Amino acid sequence: MGRLSKLRIIPRPHPANASAPKRSAGDGATPMLRQLRTKFIALNMALAALVLAASFATICYADYRADREERTERPRRRVRRDFDPFED
After folding, report:
1. 11, 42, 46, 85: which has the fewest C-beta neighbours closer than 10 Å?
2. Which residues of the chain fall below pLDDT 50?
3. How open is the CA angle 12-15-21, to the nearest 5 degrees?
4. Measured between alpha carbons, how far apart are the two ends of the chain, in Å?
């Protein structure tokens, strides 16, 4: 029992009743940091929108090319099939 009485209680790093940090990023940040954070978020959103737009445009263009090729190739196959002189 003597060993248990010598143990120290180590305080927790965060009090149990604290629900948030003392200083959040938006409350106490300097105007320069707030402006830098806003620019960073805006740049990331713009780049994400650019990547999504490029992907969408590429898919639409590939679909357009495939449809166009199919429309031009279908009549050619029909003509070849109808006028093939070597067909039995």
Report:
1. 85
2. none
3. 115
4. 106
